Amino acid sequence: MIYPSNFEQKVGFDTVRNLLQERCLSSIGREEVELTVFSPVYDEVVRRLAETREMMDILMEEADAWPVSYYFDLREMLSRLRVEGTFPQESELFDLQRSLSTIRDLVQFFARRDETRYVALRACAEGTALFPEVLKRLDGLLNAHGLLKDNASSALAQIRRDLFQVQGSISRTLHSILRKAQSEGFVEKDAAPSVRDGRLVIPVSPSFKRKLRGIVHDESATGKTVYIEPAEVVEANNRVRELQSDERREKIRILTEFANYIRPDLEELKAAYRVLGIFDFIRAKALFALDNGAIVPRIDNDCRVEWERAVHPLLQRTLKKVGKSIVPLDITLNEKQRILLISGPNAGGKSVCLKTVGLLQYMVQCGIPVPVSDASRFGIFDKLFIDIGDEQSIEDDLSTYSSHLLHMKHFIRNSNGKTLLLIDEFGTGTEPQIGGAIAEAVLHRLNTNGAFGVITTHYTNLKHFAETAEGIVNGAMLFDRHQLQPLYKLQIGIPGSSFAIEIARKIGLSEEVIAEASEKAGSAHVDLDKYVQDILRDKHYWENKRQQIRQKEKRLEELTARYETDQSEMKAQRKEVINKAKAEAQQLLSEANATIENTIRRIKEAQAEREATRGARQEFEEFRTNLDEKPKREKQPKEKHKPKQEKQSKQPEKPKPEPIKAGDRVKLAGHDSIGDVIEVDGNNVTVAFGNLKSTVKANRLERVSRNKEKEIVRQKGALGSDSDEVLRQRKLNFKQDIDVRGMRGDEALQAVQYFIDDALMMGVERVRILHGTGTGILRQLIRQYLGTIPGVRHFADEHVQLGGAGITVVDL
Prior knowledge:
By secondary structure, the chain is α/β, with parallel strands linked by helices. The chain is about 55% helix and about 15% strand.
């Protein structure tokens, strides 16, 4: 149920209809746009939206494969053919052929694709008759230009052959007469045969018209040319007329016969064209959605409004044309807060918010996608009521307030738990105290009925009522007190203010008048707006704090999980190392026992001969030495292993080092910086250390081998990794806010200095200094200091809603 009857005009849906009709390809589609209505049935709304979403997928992924030509509406012609003896025109037959081909292509589009794709659209096309025999017959009747073929019937073929022969004979005779007349001077040299009343004639000068025997059919407007049909072709032209009449009668016979052929299928043909119109309408909805960034949201089979980043599509189009952006709306209505009471300054966006709710909800229940975020959820309402604008009527003897009361009467009587109410400027139009009291009573009754709604007002008593009444919540359209301009943002949970004093001051009303008004209203009432904004600022501040704590807790959980994982891996690795060491020890013990047994056996076999015993003992000592040195060798780099005979050999004489030359890698003695030799000039060497060139003495340089360079880089990397870990831990624990309220000037300045130094070292881009307002001295000292730091790019007051002049935001 929609109330009042002009609901669509009030929320702007009539403009949406026009935009949809502009995107239709046929009058059938435009008719479907006109017929679409609000539906309170959940399954029907879901089906409509599913069809549109699938069409959006087609337009984004397979636009070239979707047929978009020949969306003709031939239902009127089909209705005319119900009468016996009627027939279509050749052009209508051509339109029928092409549009039936389009319907066939639409249905076959889904037949060529997997059954799991485009389920909703496939169901929409299911059962549509394709009329292959009708198309086959039309292909046999019409040529590529939409005219009846010569072989459409044997009689038509014979007539056209006879007509072609007679016309050829006339043309030859006429040209012969024309050439003779030109040679005798009766006709101009550049004259050519013409047609008058369907007959071939020759243009002749009036002075020579007696020279040419025949019938005068016409003369030019100036009278300087007459058109004569020579007597020799009169009979032939008469024959042409007869044949043309025969051709026309044969065409009518063929068209009538075709009409008789399709007459039993007229209703099915009309149904097929209805399907064509439905697809045209769905395509228009999909195009509108893609043009406006709309989506098909989640639909729940209950009453709710849980929208994020919702925008009014018509306002968005208007602002986009002038290069402006719209402020999105976040709004929630559920069982706990069914009615939202919005207050705030005039021209602050209250009515736009209300119209946005009405239009988007109406669009969804008409099956049209809406511009919201993916996280939004829509419910289904049975009734949509709206009271907006001035509907006073002289004829009905209704004032503005009387018309509002009539609407309230209808709302109270007909609203229930499945009703969405939209009321603008609730209670206005009469004396404020009585109007406010009546509005409060009406609001109480609507709340008792369990209705959902969005209501805008300026009345303070309604704001107080919303704070105490269950099911009603206050909302405010935010206002920037410093810039004196609305922010067009909705904040749910707090009442708004009209900011009358601020707006009066902005437009230039004298301060005397403003002061007098403030005095009459009372300071408590004037300061109420300021207190509300302070509460909102603190709320934002603590919400940000809560968010930061949640992020840190999440980070801590991740680090704890990673630590536990690393610890488990280390335990597994330790166990593996111990098992490996035990196995190696067991192997060594087995080898040692085998060696001892072998030595004893050899001594016994040699019967204690001195040389054999000495040899056996020497082999056993070598085995024990190797056994003792094996762990030491495994700990040393492989390149330091030398064959045993090399250790025992005499050390060779150390070769004289080669002189340093260009291209060598060198380092300064006692330093780890490595550079490239660029030039050598005697004892002076030019070396490039990175981007720095320096000339040093050759005896201060050491040539660095590739292995030595790797070792130096590895040592630097190990040292750097330790520093990075320390820096990472400090950055993890760094807080981007500092609170210096209550400190003396020197204490606060020292704390800020340490804070800014740490922020610069951590690479933080933005920090906040909470110093409060007070007398402003602390704020001045801190900002003087910030102005002297090269690493500070910019600093300014925090946003008015987040603390204003009491907080300094510093960009580094």
